[in-house]
Design a protein that fits this description.
Elements: H1 7-24, H2 30-37, H3 42-70, H4 73-87, H5 97-124, H6 131-159, H7 164-170, H8 172-185, H9 209-224, H10 229-237, H11 245-270, H12 272-292, H13 299-324, H14 330-358, H15 363-383
Helix pairs in contact: 1-6, 1-8, 3-5, 3-14, 4-5, 4-8, 5-14, 6-11, 6-13, 9-14, 9-15, 11-12, 11-13, 12-13, 12-15, 13-14, 14-15
């Protein structure tokens, strides 16, 4: 039987492709810009990335809840993408690390506003038995954008005389077209007539017990999964040329994009929980590799392996959340999943920066590997047995 993706899912894929091309054109260079141009310390890099991601993540659960209550997914999604679009070129004018923090925070607030309503819109535009495929396709497009962005940076930097500030300005173009695609080609889904009129207040009491353990697993895992900035810095630490760091990042995302859709489809067949447990195991091995790698040549193996982990977890955790969710609280619970991850990114990045500086460059990655194993055990012992959601 031929499986078709809805127009909304396809259009949202294009939006994410363009927006991520814009973001990832400059993202791998931000830690270099902070440390080499603005003179920021490594703990400062961790603090900026942690605050930007975590503080903005507080908005994800509330934007999801608001989209459930108002039944307006698209308008909040447009607002979020629009804010990020306006923030990106402002990085070109940063004169201190604190300016970068403001810009990164504004960009991530936009992401916080849009993510849960966007994912809920994708879920509502997809048949339940094809959720893994739809989220996998969307993540594939998102990740292809993350491949195109660094490759564009590789082409444009020599043309721009390696001026990172000019590249920040150029990044505006793709995000502008992403917003136009969203406005003209994505349609709001009509509210389900079967949804109850009484809308519940936001309360943890509404959550199933095994979903709470799922959130606990996400929290512990995220505590060891610091900002990707530390992967880039580790590559530079091992002798990889700065100009090749975007290529490593692109390579990771090529693997991610290639596997996202087939892994999403596999999750529809064997169950998303099994895929996610495997993803955590791959992460533990990968971060152990980052810790023990003796030279930069190993980065060409570890970055693709990191892409395998990403393909096995990113869209899968959304699939698990949607399948657990009360249909009336789909946006709220998607937002809570995103918020849990985001809240623990702040201490994760700060811990990584401090461990790197005070103990050694290998220790942040060893810590991440241990956290992944603990999170995996929680999934296997408390979440995995309860998630009989998909026929295996």
């Amino acid at each position: 039987m031929k499986i078709k993706l809805s127009r909304n899912v396809k259009a949202m894929g294009v939006v994410s492709f363009l927006n991520d091309a814009s973001t990832d054109m400059v993202y791998p260079l931000i830690p270099v810009f902070l440390t080499k141009v603005l003179g920021a310390s490594l703990p400062m890099v961790g603090l900026i990335e942690g605050i930007a991601e975590s503080t903005a993540s507080l908005m994800k659960v509330f934007s999801g809840w608001a989209s459930d209550k108002l039944r307006k997914r698209k308008s909040l999604t447009v607002l979020g993408y629009g804010l990020s679009m306006l923030a990106k070129p402002m990085m070109a004018f940063a004169q201190s690390p604190w300016h970068v923090l403001f810009v990164r925070f504004s960009d991530r607030v936009g992401k916080g506003i849009r993510m849960a309503p966007r994912d809920a819109l994708i879920a509502e535009s997809t048949a339940p038995e094809n959720l893994g495929l739809a989220f996998g396709f969307h993540k594939m497009m998102d990740t292809l954008g993350a491949v195109a962005g660094p490759l564009l940076a590789l082409i444009l930097l020599p043309i721009l005389n390696n001026n990172i500030r000019h590249l920040f300005l150029f990044s505006f173009v793709a995000s502008f077209f992403a917003l136009l695609t969203l406005i003209f080609f994505v349609k709001e889904k009509k509210p389900d007539i079967h949804v109850k009129k009484e809308f519940p207040s936001l309360s943890l009491k509404l959550l199933p017990r095994h979903y709470k353990f799922f959130l606990l697993s996400l929290a512990i895992f995220t505590l060891g999964n610091s900002s990707d900035s530390f992967l880039f810095l580790r590559a530079e630490n091992l002798g990889v040329a700065i100009g090749l760091i975007p290529v490593l990042y692109a390579l990771s995302n090529i693997v991610f994009a290639a596997l996202a859709t087939p892994i999403g489809r596999l999750a529809d067949i064997i169950g998303p929980q099994k895929i996610m447990v495997g993803g955590y195991a791959v992460f533990a091995v990968t971060y152990l590799g980052f810790s023990l790698a003796p030279s930069g040549i190993f980065m060409w193996l570890l970055f693709p392996l990191y892409g395998v982990f990403s393909a096995m977890t990113d869209s899968i955790q959304k699939t698990i959340t949607v399948q657990i969710s009360d249909p009336q609280l789909k946006g709220t619970m998607l937002g809570l999943t995103h918020t849990t991850i985001g809240l623990f990114q702040l201490p994760a990045s700060v811990i990584a920066g401090l461990l790197w500086k005070m103990v050694g460059v290998q220790v942040p990655f060893l810590f991440g590997s241990i956290c992944a194993v603990i999170a995996l055990l929680i999934l296997v012992t408390t979440v995995f047995p309860k998630l009989q959601l998909v026929k295996s």
